[in-house]
Amino acid sequence: MHREPVVMWSCAIGGLGMALPAIVPRELVETFSRDGKATRAVPSAAAVAKALRPSA
């Protein structure tokens, strides 16, 4: 830790990020999501193309 603090802290933060999905309850994730669901549906290619098309 004294020789390489950046490496130690980056591993600790990475480990915390990897552990959070197992630690945080699903109900809490759904509470703080925008639409009340943990995941959103993948848009179709046509919807993406329509959204990227400039409006005239």
Automatic annotation (TrEMBL):
Keywords: Membrane, Transmembrane, Transmembrane helix. The chain crosses the membrane at residues 6-24. It comes from the Eukaryota. This is Uncharacterized protein. It comes from Ostreococcus lucimarinus (strain CCE9901). The lineage of its organism: Eukaryota, Viridiplantae, Chlorophyta, Mamiellophyceae, Mamiellales.
